[in-house]
């Protein structure tokens, strides 16, 4: 058993040390600029999607209801990790308090799981719309959509809370350094001083249930969609039906591809630096790219954004500065 000089339990431990992406002082301004730019672009892009969906009656459908929820989750998702990273880079301080670390992990797990669930239900929505168009409004009714989102929130609240309660029972050494730029569950379990068998079992079970089943649901939905499209005789109908899935498929590939890359890199290499770089892709880059994917590939969203920016550019109460109005108007012409 470790002595009190070398170890503390959850009641006495005051803070962890986050390794961060680099210790090179010359790289700190570059990392700060990149993270800040990515964060601001993600917030603004996803807010524009939410405003466009809420302000345009043509987008008040289940597909765009889930899209606006996905944008909200992406804002929350990136906000759990990037602000603390920016503070640590700016202050040259690696400390993160024990409570702050568990809080960050709790919300990170919630929003990660919500991303997973929403991508799955969005695939189901496209499956119903293409394979059962006559029953679409009956199946995907507003009550079911709201119920699914609320159910997903409840599931992730409970699952994340169990993770935190189990983690709170572990013992960590004084001055424990986490080889990551945020409090990631798998890395916290690796640096624990006590036995983590129960934590790992629960982690594997949850990953299997909340990972395998959603991916299976997405694959099944798109297999049925492809089967239905192949039976269509009109190429125009095929293109119109599948064009509504293009943006979602890109986001799914990006989310699960980068997530799989993180786990693969951690399995085949012992370099924490490479694992952190891979983690940046799905924790920072993916939420930033989602709004661009939907706004560039989806005509309905592009049209709603054009109308939204057009109203903002022409309304005197929105933007009093003439130069800002001209900038917004030029954006509407680019869309």
From TrEMBL:
The keyword Magnesium does not apply. The chain crosses the membrane at residues 30-52, 64-83, 103-124, 144-166, 201-220, 241-264, 276-296. Residues 45-294 form the G-protein coupled receptors family 1 profile domain. It is a multi-pass membrane protein. The keyword Iron does not apply. GO terms for cellular component: plasma membrane. Keywords: Cell membrane, G-protein coupled receptor, Membrane, Olfaction, Receptor, Sensory transduction, Transducer, Transmembrane, Transmembrane helix. PANTHER family: OLFACTORY RECEPTOR (PTHR48001). Belongs to the G-protein coupled receptor 1 family. This is Olfactory receptor. It comes from Sciurus vulgaris.
